[in-house]
Amino acid sequence: MSDIVEQLKKVRKLQSRAAAAKMELHDLAEDLPINWARIKTIAGETFDAFAELNAAKEELAALENSR
């Protein structure tokens, strides 16, 4: 059970990080064409945050299914 609890904490932390990255990308888009050169950087960071979140969710689901 401890592994599941720890993974759930990790998922929650990553959800917060992904939401913050999404908002940063959204804010950047609203301000275009200002800071247009940052699009690739911010989009990459957002992509990475959601990829990590997705992997953590899949790991959590595997842990829950193995009980």
Automatic annotation (TrEMBL):
Keywords: Coiled coil, Nitrogen fixation
Top-rank taxon, per record: Bacteria
Coiled-coil ranges from the UniProt annotation: 4-31
InterPro entries tied to this protein: Helix_hairpin_bin_sf (IPR029012), Put_N_fixation (IPR007774)
Family (UniProt): Belongs to the UPF0437 family.
Name assigned to this protein: Rop-like family nitrogen fixation protein
Organism of origin: Rhizobium sophoriradicis
